[in-house]
Amino acid sequence: MKNKLKITWNSPVILTFVAICLAATALNYITGGKSNAIFFMTYHSSLKSPMTYVRLFSHVFGHANWSHFIGNMSYILLLGPLLEEKYKSQTLIEVIAIAALITGLVNYIFFPHVALCGASGVVFAFMLLASFTSFKEGEIPLTFLLVAVFFIGQQIIQGLTLDDNVSNMAHIVGGIVGGWCGYLLNRKTV
């Protein structure tokens, strides 16, 4: 008898994250952008509004359009399952929440006229976190240095030279969060 192949829900945090992002992007499309403005985009709004605090986290679920969504989810689906296997689901939820909160706060404080949405900060956090997978105490992985130079360096240059409506700040801050989390998580285990 032949073994039947079955599809498994192999990475619950990542697959749930992608499903929420898909729903948020579809809702944004259906509402003509209104759902992003209300729920899935962080911007300088009144500190008296509870939604200001919700959006500091929920902005990572919304995406401006389908190509923005597909670009971010491709990286999330590529890196996320490996990270979830190594660090476990709860830790990955914490990394996503920290990346969302810190990119949201930096945007709120330093870019009061800019609205931010998308999972780019999470993507860059995952990139730098992934480069720490073979970390040993007292060593700095060359992969981490190369990823930091290539990806973060590119974002700094693009942030200074291009006006393309891409939040290079979220990429840089997300990368810093991922590198910091990678160092802390792997330092404890050695």
Could you describe the 3D structure shown?
This protein is mainly alpha-helical and 190 residues long. The chain has one domain (12-189): Rhomboid-like (Rhomboid-like fold, Up-down Bundle). Helix content is 68%, strand content 0%. It is built from eight helices and no strands. Helix 3 crosses helix 5 (89-110) and helix 7 runs antiparallel to helix 8 (168-189). The longest helix is centred in the middle third of the chain and has 22 residues, at 66-87. The radius of gyration is 17 Å and the shape is globular. The protein starts with 11 loop residues before the first helix and ends with a helix. The model has no long low-confidence stretch (mean pLDDT 88).
What best-fitting shape do the alpha-carbon axes yield?
A: globular
Can you tell me the CATH topology? Rhomboid-like fold
Number of strands: 0
Largest sheet: none
Map the helices and strands.
Elements: H1 12-30, H2 34-38, H3 50-58, H4 66-87, H5 89-110, H6 120-130, H7 142-161, H8 168-189
Helix pairs in contact: 1-4, 3-5, 4-5, 4-6, 5-8, 6-7, 6-8, 7-8
Summarize the structure.
With 190 residues, this protein is mainly α.
Keywords:
190 residues; mainly alpha; Rhomboid-like fold; 8 helices; globular
